[in-house]
Amino acid sequence: MSAPTTNIEKQAHRHSTPIWGILAAVIFGGLMGAAITWTATSGDAPEGAAAQVDGRTGDVATE
Question: How far apart, in whole angstroms, are the C-alpha atoms of residue 18 and residue 4?
Fold first, then answer.
């Protein structure tokens, strides 16, 4: 069974906005994924990473 009236141009016009929205979401997600990956693998130690805490007293000893 097929649709009674098929107007390809009208359907293409109606679907163009959602398709552009999906494309924009995919690009945004890719950029965010790349940014997270870049940040996680940058190799820089976070501030205070060299500090050691004495488990008995809770004092911070930096070396």
Answer: 24
